[in-house]
Design a protein that fits this description.
Elements (H helix, E strand, L loop, with lengths): L1 H18 L1 H4 L3 H24 L5 H36 L5 H31 L4 H6 L10 H5 L4 H9 L13 H12 L6 E6 L6 H9 L2 H6 L2 E6 L6 H15 L13 H12 L4 E8 L3 H6 L11 E6 L2 H4 L6 E6 L5 H12 L12 H10 L4 H11 L5 H9 L1 H7 L4 H12 L3 H9 L9 E2 H11 L10 H14 L4 E5 L5 E5 L2 H13 L4 E3 L5 E3 L6 E6 L4 E3 L8 E6 L20 E3 L20 E3 L20 E3 L20 E3 L2 E2 L9 E2 L15 E6 L2 H6 L8 E7 L4 H10 L5 E6 L20 E5 L17 E5 L20 E5 L6 E4 L8 E5 L6 E4 L9 E5 L11 H4 L5 E5 L3 H8 L2 H4 L5 E9 L2 E12 L1
Helix pairs in contact: 1-3, 1-4, 3-5, 4-5, 12-13, 16-17, 16-18, 20-25, 23-24
Length: about 950
């Protein structure tokens, strides 16, 4: 993390030198000297990060010192830029006497630059007080050896990790919980009679039990009888291919009861490969490669594993999805492990925590035990380790102490060392830029659902996203997120129609470890205490506060804070914490989403460094009129606030990329529940905007919309029929659009878009709200569309679905009062449709879905269709992926059809939710269950 801080600072210095030359005139020599020193520091730290070793106390102290110096420099530069920016803004605020005032300010500016140069000189002297650079950065010999992982993992070493992994080979069936179904699938792939060489990958985050499952399957008698030769090899992060081959050959000689050749250690990779290939050539073999981290291994080892038609199998375990889903050969299978279900997790926890009580939890410990088991979130490694730790504790106070101090226990208790080591392997294997992206996620509270776009925009604001030629920062940041997910460090909780993650979260145990690392590295501080929160006393640049029922108080270090998050986790009285403390100067990120704030400090407009401002869900009623001073602001979020109009100065924000400004009218109908915000008519001057939602459009806005060519997401309302020509011309010019929502001025106004020649080629989501005579002709060009929503279209054309049935990527359709007929007919197509939602169809009686249509449908939702009387024919059998059917405010006939006689006893039933769940009596089957609601 010291490397991260130094690298980010170097980037900022270069940016300042290029973009703020006028402010830095007179101090270039000091800046350049500092740049050279930090470059040398960075080179050393990058070597240390790559080799993952900081073993001695001297080395560790040096790294801590580098981090402290980097923070000092950052503070000095940001404070200087703040002061100089204030001076410029003060001068620019005058007109008639501006020339005279500029003259007065010259001596003060010179004094400020002189003071700044003196501080930089002091920093350079402090760095040079260490021995000469060659000694400072070359004294430590950073050799890449397996033993270096010991420095990374504290008390763990590679031998311990290898032994821990291979100990799974000795577990008995009685020690295992929740693997029956997955093991049946694994055994099927191993012994199904397919003669092609097959690669089977078992993947999932660390601690899910991949090795345990594969080891237990490897030991099955049916497996050993099926293959002529079986071998187990533990790979790990750092391996030597020659050692892996020697291990397999030794196993060959051992099983043949022959003496291992004395010259085996002298053989080259080629000789070892030839020996192994010759032995396996005519055999049906099973090779297990446990804990694979890189595809390089496959490229090296596949050449010596015969590819004959003998029914051989290669089984590997990996945390890396890019490894698991690689196309290894003709036949590949992937088994993604999931956390244990609640019932299974509780059973396993009790087995380990109460072995002397036959796995039964005493009543007096039930509440604490269930909370601790829940903390493990179905992760077998954590459940077993935590249960084992608690098995020796009999008193309530002992259990409560572990419960209340789990973070400390994970970091310091030797009995939980295995959990820490195994989970942190994934973290330390990350490229250095991704390490701070991962740690940053612990800013959010436990179990918090983190939206993809929010996280990406925050990483951008913090400067974590490296510039990549030909790619926007948003694209690069999404790659980072995908990488963290593929390594099991973040869990996806919801995906959109195209498979991109919408929300994700951190596993509780991983978050505890991330919090511990962040506090040690002074990366972020987490405050979730119930007493009054003191902002800025710890000297850390990022602070996350969980506000409960107390006000925030400013600390003496508040002026150095760069990022502040406020999370409201409980119901809070309106009188508490309704304003922020003052004193901020250098903030880059201010995230107050859902916090009980009703006013911003006036000094917010002086935060020239502010990149990200999130007021979503607050009670703020207005923005400062001088909002245009925030010249570096990239993201502004005003969703669900009390703000009705943006000040004219918003158009001065030349770096603004994301502007979200709508709220919901809870008293409105489905049509007018979106309430837009009035924007300045010349908002089109902000040409950097990529996201604009949800504007109240006027004629001027629509005419000039074509100038906002960088837009990728656009939502606006108040469109009139007379706007058709300008509307279609403008949309046709915005070729980068991925998300488009257009809403007419009222539900009776026709939404005319026929003059659009062709839809934007990248369009993925389309929402049209307003009356349509027919679907526009350009619908056929929506080849990339994944989501379509039609609101209040009131189409009368019975065959309107034929215009969209062939769209190849359509995954979700929402139709709200979109059709006035009695029957919806899905006759063909919709091959990728996963979600179908139908609402407010006053005349709809039934739906026809032909066999073979929408074969991947997972959710069917029908609401407010009072005449709807029956579900599609054979919906249970012809739609094999269907898992959820929701019926709300439908006819009494369909309620009785599903619920039978029960409906007569419950005449107030309005909602029926049918769920297809696994049958606990037979895990290979599913059954439908229903719940009813008034």
């Amino acid at each position: 993390m010291a490397l991260s801080a130094t690298d980010l600072l170097l980037g900022r210095i270069l940016s300042i030198m290029e973009n703020e030359a006028s402010l830095l005139s007179g101090v270039h020599d000091e800046i350049n000297e500092l740049k050279l020193e930090l470059t040398s520091m960075r080179s050393f730290l990058e070597d240390a990060d790559r080799t993952r070793v900081v073993q001695s106390k001297a080395e560790n102290d040096w790294v801590v010192g580098v981090r402290e110096i980097a923070h000092q420099v950052e503070d000095i530069i940001d404070k200087y830029m703040y002061d100089m920016n204030r001076q410029q803004q003060w001068r620019w605020g005058y007109t008639f006497t501006s020339f005279f005032l500029k003259g007065i300010q010259v001596p003060q500016n010179l004094w400020m630059k002189d003071r700044f140069a003196k501080k930089l000189q002091d920093i350079n002297k402090e760095i040079k007080s260490i021995p000469e650079r060659s000694q400072r950065y070359g004294v430590y010999q950073l050799e890449v050896k397996d033993k270096n992982l010991q420095g990374m993992l504290g008390n763990c070493d590679l031998n311990w990790l290898k032994n821990e992994s291979e100990s799974s080979l000795f577990l008995k069936d009685d020690d295992l919980v929740g693997i029956k179904k997955t093991q049946r699938e694994l055994l099927g792939w191993l012994t199904n009679g397919d003669l092609e060489r097959t690669v089977i990958s078992v993947t999932g985050m660390g601690g899910l039990g991949k090795t345990t499952l594969v080891a237990n399957t490897f030991n099955k008698q049916v497996v050993n009888q099926h293959f002529d030769f079986c071998a187990w090899t533990t790979v790990s992060q750092q391996y030597a291919i020659e050692e892996l081959l020697r291990s397999m050959i030794k196993e060959i000689y051992m099983k043949a009861n022959e003496q291992t050749p004395v010259n085996l250690n002298a053989l080259s990779y080629r000789d070892l490969g030839e020996k192994l290939e010759k032995y396996l050539q005519a055999k049906r073999y099973l090779i297990v490669l446990d804990d694979v981290w890189s595809l390089n291994l496959w490229q090296q080892i596949s050449r010596v594993l015969p590819n004959g038609r003998n029914g051989s199998r290669i089984m590997l375990t990996t945390r890396m999805k890019e490894v698991a889903f690689f196309q290894f050969g003709i036949v590949n299978h992937v088994l993604e492990l999931k956390p244990l279900r609640d019932k299974e997790a509780w059973t396993l926890f009790c087995m380990k925590a109460f072995p002397s009580n036959l796995g039964q939890c005493p009543p007096y410990l039930d509440s604490l035990a269930r909370n601790l088991a829940e903390k493990c979130k179905g992760l077998p490694l954590a459940i077993v380790a935590l249960g084992g730790l608690l098995s020796s504790k009999k008193f309530l106070a002992e259990w409560r102490n572990v419960h209340d101090n789990l973070n400390w226990e994970l970091s310091n208790n030797p009995e939980l060392e295995a959990v820490k080591c195994i989970l942190l392997l994934s973290y330390y294997h990350l490229p250095y830029r991704l390490k701070h992206c991962f740690l940053y996620c612990c800013i959010f509270p436990e179990d918090y659902l983190i939206r993809r776009n929010r996280l990406i925009r925050l990483w951008m604001a913090e400067g974590f996203v490296e510039p990549v030629t030909g790619a926007t920062p948003e694209v690069v940041a999404e790659r980072y997120l995908t990488e963290l997910i593929s390594r099991g460090l973040l869990q996806v909780t919801k995906r959109n129609e195209s498979g991109r993650p919408q929300t994700c979260k951190m596993h509780d145990i991983l978050r505890e470890l991330a919090v511990s690392i962040s506090e040690t590295e002074k990366f972020v501080a987490i405050s979730d205490r119930k007493e009054a929160v003191v902002v800025g006393d710890n000297g850390i640049h990022r602070l996350s506060i969980e506000v409960r029922d107390k006000e925030m108080k400013a600390g003496k270090g508040i002026s150095k804070l760069r990022s502040l998050f406020v999370f409201a986790v409980d119901e809070i009285s309106k009188s508490s914490c309704n304003s922020l403390p003052s004193g901020f100067k250098l903030l880059r990120v201010l995230d107050l989403q859902d916090a009980p704030i009703n006013q911003l400090p006036g000094e917010v407009v002086n935060l020239f460094n502010l990149r990200y401002l999130n007021l979503t869900g607050t009670q703020v009623k207005e923005l400062p009129k001088s909002i245009g001073k925030l010249c570096n602001l990239q993201s502004l979020f005003l969703k669900e606030t009390q703000i009705e109009e943006l000040p004219p100065g918003i158009v001065k924000l030349k770096n603004l990329r994301h502007l979200i400004v709508y709220r919901f009218n809870i008293r409105g109908t489905d049509y007018d529940r979106w309430v837009g915000m009035r924007l300045p008519s010349n908002i089109f001057l902000v040409k950097s905007l990529q996201v604009l939602t949800f504007a109240e459009a006027g004629d001027t806005f629509i005419k000039n919309l074509s100038k906002m060519t960088q837009l990728k997401r656009l939502c606006f309302a108040n469109v009139k029929e007379a706007n058709e020509k300008d509307l279609c011309f403008s949309i046709g010019k915005i070729s980068l659009l991925r998300y488009l929502m257009v809403m007419s001025c009222n539900k009776e106004e026709r939404l005319k878009m026929d003059q659009l020649v062709e839809a934007p080629p990248c369009l993925e989501k389309l929402v049209l709200a307003g009356k349509l005579e027919k679907l526009p002709h350009w619908f056929k060009s929506l080849q990339n569309l994944t989501c379509l929503r039609l609101h209040w279209s009131r189409l009368r054309e019975e065959g309107f679905l034929t215009h969209i049935q062939a769209l190849p990527n359509l995954g979700r359709i929402t139709l709200v009062n979109a059709f006035e007929g009695e029957r919806l007919c899905f006759l063909q197509g919709f091959q990728k449709l996963k979600v179908l939602r139908i609402q407010k169809f006053p005349g709809l009686k039934d739906i026809v879905i032909n066999k073979g249509v929408m074969p991947g449908l997972q959710e069917l939702n029908i609401r407010e269709c009072p005449k709807f009387v029956k579900l599609p024919h054979a919906w249970g059998s012809d739609l094999p992926d269907l898992r959820k059917v929701c019926l709300r405010d439908v006819s009494s006939e369909i309620i009785e059809q599903i619920c039978g006689a029960q409906s007569m006893a419950q005449p107030a039933i309005r909602v029926i939710l049918l769920s297809r769940v696994e049958d606990n009596d037979d895990e290979s089957n599913f059954k439908w269950v229903y719940r009813t609601y008034d």
